[in-house]
Each structure stands twice: as structure tokens, then as C-alpha cells.
Amino acid sequence: MPLSPFLLRTGTSLFALAVLGVFALLYIFTPGGYFTLLHLLGDSPYPTPFADTKTILDATACWRAGVDVYTPSACLRGGIFNYSPLLLRLAFFLPAGPAATLAGGLASVAAFILSLSLLPPPETPRALAIRCAAATSIATIFGVERGNFDLVIFCLVVLGVALTLRHSALRLAGYLFFLLAAGLKFYPAAALVLLAKEPRRPLLLFALPLALLGTAYILGFHHGTISALKTLPGGPPFIYWFGAINLPYGLSLLLHAPASLLTQNFALYQLALANLHVPAPIALAIQLPLWTAAALAMLFLSQRRAPAPALDPAARAFHITGAALTLCCFFAAQNVVYREIFLLLTLPALERDNQTPWLLPAILFLLWEETLRPIAAIASATLLPIPLANATQITFWLLRELLWWATITQLGATLVEYGQAEARRLLGGAFKQGRPGALPLDPAKGSPLEP
Length: 451
What we know:
The protein has helices at residues 5-29, 31-41, 51-64, 85-90, 98-115, 125-135, 138-146, 150-164, 168-185, 200-230, 246-256, 266-275, 280-304, 313-332, 347-350, 359-383, 386-426, and strands spanning 241-242, 335-336. By secondary structure, it is an all-alpha fold. Helix 9 packs parallel to helix 10 (200-230).
């Protein structure tokens, strides 16, 4: 039975809102059920929701009191603030305390859920079901339960992409949203890769104010920015985190520590990580072949892939943005799994892609991996001897890492193709529809961005 265009567009948001309502009712009426369900799904919830929102509000209050929040202080209970100094200024008038935490957390979650309706709508009920499963995965639940600021960044990015598909003045506003997101959390600067799709004259007109504002930010907030970048968090390579460093770091750890570290005993992790010493040349030798192989694979795929499906401008723009943000996060640092929400931006294009049918299931696996991994661990520990159970957990982890590298390689190939196509256009060559490996626009719809 076909669904109405309204339901296809809003269905993901409505489903996510219903899931949020279930968790809210559990928390209000049966807190034990709320925490049990989150633990079953693979989350490690805090005693109260929106802990990350509270951290930002507390840091703002400390900064207003004259505390240097980029160094450990009693005001932050020994913790440090690792966000942009711009966020401290923008949050200057926000109140602190439990009431503000609840309001701020709910506002960010509501904005995130509503922003899902700004993505290009799925075209079939099956695609809608996939979109709902991805949008309510454990990766998303992690961010929502904590009220993490990446939810706000996601909203700014989605709104920015939507605006860049409009006419000139609104397109500039879209790129300003990207710049604001970058000023607040650094990595969204990767979304500015979307500038390459602009005709030459608007590209130059947009680049000038963006460059001036970026320079003003660096001059005004370089000290706090450097302090924040130096204190980026990291953690065990086996749980909760993703990034390019996970595979070489995890292999090094397994070579020097018992496989029992694959369990969720964070104290054991901390002890092993503190005592682990991998000589720099060895670590570099482990990582360089991986990065080199990934780069060569991206170039190979960009030249040898079969023609990709024709995409409308919106699906193409969101796909490119999602790929750029995911690659930036993957290679820049370790990331908590809630940052996987930017993979949601790639779904509208992947739902139409029959050339890489494995990629959509791989992304769904990665989004739900924190739920699947404990199930695999419990099943193997129950059914198998300890050596085989440990081997099963290591195999599961290796599968996750290989899927990450395969996904990153494919998204990287997409960016290479995009860069090649837009470079030819900007340098005077016509954009060739249907070129092998390209992500062409839908010929029937054309592009509203042509000069």
C-alpha cells in the first residue's frame, strides 16, 4: 500500500518521537524499566538524562564566574571543558541548574527529531522502515540520552544543506550555518566542501565573507580552540568509539594485553592503556599501510565503479556532506558512537543506489553495533569455552573495524568523484552526466544551481 508524501517525509520524525515518548514514560513511571531497557540496548545511561547538556551549562556558569574551564578545576569537579570558546560566549545568557538541563536537553532532542524531516524523503515504505531503524539506533540513543551537543550540530548541518539548495541569499546563509557549526565543534568545517558545487561567480562571492569570518574566529579564539583540541577525549578501541586509530591501536593492545579486555570493564581498560607502550615507528608502520590502502582504494573505485544512479540535487548534497563529515571525524580522532548520526545524511542517496548494495546494511550494522556486540559476547561466553569466546569477540570487533574501513573507503570514493566532477566544471569542462563513477544529477529535474 503506497504511503502519502506527507507520511514519507515526516514518518521518520514521527517514529523517533514515538520512541522518545516510550522512554520518557518509562523514566517517569518505571525508572527501573527505563534503565533496564537502555542497558539491554547497549547503552550505559547516567543516573539522570542529558548529562552532556548539564556539563556545557555547568562550564558556562564556571566561565562566567571567572574560572579557566580549559584546566582542571573544582568548579567542574576536576573536569575540563573541551568545546569551542565560541560556545561559552553564545551560552552566556543561558541559566544553569536542573531545570535548564531538562529544557536544554529536550530542546536539542526535539530539534534533532524535527530536522530528520528536512532530509530528502524516502520513496518507498521499505526505505522509510530503514530510515526509522537508522534514526532510532543505539548510536542515536546514545546521543539523545546524554543530550549531546552533536544533536545541535546535526540540526545546523541539515538546515545548512537545505538552504544551500535555494537561491543565492539563502545559499550563503546555509554556508554560514556550516561556519557556525564549525566554530562550535570544529569538525563541521568539512561540510564546506559543498561550496564546490556552486557556479564560479557565487563561489567567489560566498568564499570571501566565509574566509573573513573564519579568520576573525581564529584571531579571537585561537587560545581556547588550541586548548580544546589538546584535550579531545579518547577511549578503548573495542567499545563506544570509532576512528582510524581503533584498528592499529586495538591490535597493539591485544598483542600486549589479555583478550579479557574485550569485556566492558573500564578500569581494566584504563590500566592496560596506561601501561601500553607501542614504539612510535611501529605504530606509524601499522597505520600508514591502512591509510595508503584506503587512499588507493578510493582512487580505484572512483575510476572503476559502474555508473551510479542519477540523484536529485538534495540527495546528492546531503550524501556529499555526510561523507565529508564522517571521513573528517574518522581520521581526525576517536569519536563516541553518537557521532555516527552523520551517516543518516547519506541514506537518501544510498536508498537509490543499486551499485553498492552492501553499503546500506553495513551502515545499519555500524549504527546498531553497540547493541549487537554485547549479545554476541554473552552468547559466546555462555555457549563456548573461554578461548573460543574470546576469539569470537575479537572476530566481531575485527568485523566492525573492517566494515568501518570499507564504508569509509566507499564514502571517500564518493568525495573523490565529486571533487573530480566539480573541478572539471569549475575549470571550464562541462559536467558530464552519467560518467562512470560520478554522482550525476537527475536529468529530468536538472539543477537549480546552474548560473
